[in-house]
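BUG: 3D viewer hangs when loading the predicted structure for this chain

Environment: internal workstation, default settings.
Expected: structure renders.
Actual: progress bar stalls at 90%.

Input used:
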Amino acid sequence: MMEPKFPDEEEGRENLISQSAAVKHLVKPSDPRNPSTFQIGDDGETALSAASSRFKKRYILAISLLVSILVLSFVSDLKNWFVNRIPWIGDFGNSNSSVNQMRESELQALSLLKQQEFELFQMWNYTALMNKSQLNLVNSTRNVVNLSSANNDSGSSLSSSILEDLKSRVFHQISLNHRIQGVLLSSHANASSVDLNETCTNANILNWNSCGKVDQRLSERRTIEWNPRSNKHLFAICVSGQMSNHLICLEKHMFFAALLDRVLVIPSPKVDYEFKKILDIEHINKCLGKKVVVTFEEFAESKKNNLHVDKILCYFSLPQPCFLDDDHVNKLKGLGLTLSKVEAVWEEDVKEPKQRTVQDILGKFSTDDDVIAVGDIFFADIEREWVMQPGGPIAHKCKTLIEPSSLILLTAQRFVQTFLGNNFIAVHFRRHGFLKFCNAKKPSCFYPIPQAAECINRVVERANSPVIYLSTDAAKSETGLLQSFIHGNGKVVPLVQRPASNSAEKWDALLYRNGLEGDPQVSLHVFGSSGLIVCYYD
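Structure tokens produced before the viewer hung:
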């Protein structure tokens, strides 16, 4: 029986490859020009060989790159090594000669500054020797004046003052020298070794208390006992200048009263400032344990209707006796006072006051009259060293004899606490009227802003204070320029002045509560006292 044949099967067989043909085809050398789809042997080996070749090239390239990096790093380090030790290597190949010249100048400047620093330290060591030995000053005629004699207290004080000023100047120069070195080094590789905001030397390392508390030696001061006779009075008259002048005038009147054993009468607010708002008058009496000062109202009450000044013995005769003008005399008479004849005890000009002694005062002003007056004595030059010594000339049991009123004192304390803290510098920078006044002196005491700023900066550096309280009558143009010059340790030190009146402020709330916020006398003394608060409570 014949098997049926399907057309598809026959077509499929025609497409099959015979076994012998297949074998021959497999062993037949491949023709690269006619590659077979199923060619494996020779083509696989070729592909592996190409891949291996590419891998080797990449490996060699990576190794070459790594070696190049290592070589460059080594060369760079070597160059830096030479640059640090041989400066001109760093500029090798640099055509910019100006840069090379600048670097050379900087290095020369550093060398000179190092030399200056060494010489300044020698000066510092010399001041230490001077502190242990005598300090001699040579005047223009080459006469030597010994200022350190144990028997000359004023000379010793002057010697100490000069020495401290010299130390301050030397310390400032050493510090400034270091800052210059730091600026010059800032463009060099070793700039990190210098802190530009750091002062070169620590004053403690130099064994110097740069801004220490002054030993006022109150226990050693020369004093006089004030033992007034209760029925003998000295009527104070103060007319020259503003508040501070009047307070100095009152202080000198207290010395007069102590010498003459009299009770001092404070001027009436109708002819002078209202002192009972400004001063703690009872504090003076408590410090002495007796009634040594009375207000005009108390004086008038004790005298009933007999308000009379028995003698007016004028300390100054020129430009007019007692430095009194007709206007002030009329004001005194308006209080109900009757005045005796005005007479000068000697010839004395306010423009050229003579130095007077206790014996001079006792010889001319001693009298048994109940009430006397000596006129304005602000310009009087009486026992200067005695009167001006710390603590004053009068024996008392308090830290300070004259104090602001408790209201002013507390307000000033709150101002300091709010704006300044416990480390500040207080500067009284008076300008109004000083240009004419100071230029009359030789040399002038009126400092230009830059020179004044230099003095303040020296104090800032010594005290290391972050803020300055500035009491001044100068215009904003002057204070603004002054602020631009004030700096310490590379930072601006702000100048704090009296703020504008503001009801939201808390530090002066006591003035508002007592209706004194607009009182110019109180306000002036609050800010005049601020700079003294820390010293008082230290």
